[in-house]
Amino acid sequence: MPMHPAAPDDLPGLVAAFAQTSQALVDLAITCSDDDFAKPTDCPGWSVKDQISHVVSLESALLGRPDPAVEVPDYEHVRHERGRAIEAGVELRRDRPGKEVAQELHRVVSARLGRLRDTDLDESTEVESPMGTMTLGDLMRRRVADVWVHEQDVRTALNRPGSLDSAAAATFCQRAMDSLPSIVVDKVGVEPGKVVMIELTGPVVARTGVRVETSPEGETVGKLMFAGGADETGPIPAIGRTTSIQLSTEAFARRAAGRRSVDELHYTVLGDDQVAHDVLENLVITP
Fold first, then answer.
1. DSSP secondary-structure letter at 40?
2. Does 174 fall in a domain?
3. Is 127 within a domain?
4. % the chain with pLDDT above 90
5. The domain containing residue 111 runs over which residues?
6. Neighbours of 282 (CB within 10 A)
7. How would you label 95-130 residue by residue, b for 16+ Cβ within 10 Å and e otherwise?
8. What's the pTM value of the predicted model, to 2 decimals?
9. CA angle 208, 286, 34 (to 5 degrees)
10. What is the pLDDT of residues 155-164, one digit of tens each?
11. CB burial of residue 143 (10 Å; 0-12, 13-18, 19+)
């Protein structure tokens, strides 16, 4: 799909994007005061320090240094077992000073970047992760997107905006946009013959769409538009069958990360307002 800046499509680009967003988080962390570490973020139940603790925990596990087991209380924001597993790394560090956790982040990020720059690695290398075995390329796309979301959580809490035009931002937006066919068809139930389009106005500028069709087997399917295939120049249905949603990168990313409700978003719609609302309501791609 048309996107500027484009999301990285090879391992060196992904490693560079990870280096940028993880180092940005380090830079934010080491300048935090005790009051800054305690500030609440858009991620329910988590402070700025908790955000940093979470990244430290996951990146440590990817280094082969998993956290020791810890009992997680029944917090209101822990809604399922996956959430409980994620919370463990945060709980382990909850009583530690923020400066100590920031220094741990610095050490872990440096070690991770050292390994990722190993010239023997390539995008198809299979690696173990807390999410199971996957290729290094897939893992890095996930880690770039995840760390960038937490960087944005911290930036929002500290009122220090930035990195909205980065390769990491583009990586997250790409992942969210790639999920649109499933959202439009499986979650919203848009009927065949209709199109849903999303346009990001910047700093990451992008355009994508889903054309809903009936397959030869009689199933309703969503085809991603502007992906370089035959649909690149295909006709778009007339007004009345197309719903177009326009919003900023920041608004799109905060919604896709589940950090902002639809009612809190600023967006414009050309077409069916209810379809647009339902697509945005189901846009969240984070746990």
1. B
2. no
3. yes
4. 79
5. 3-159
6. 17
7. eeebeebbebbbebbeebeeebeeeeeebeeeeeee
8. 0.92
9. 120
10. 999 999 999 9
11. buried
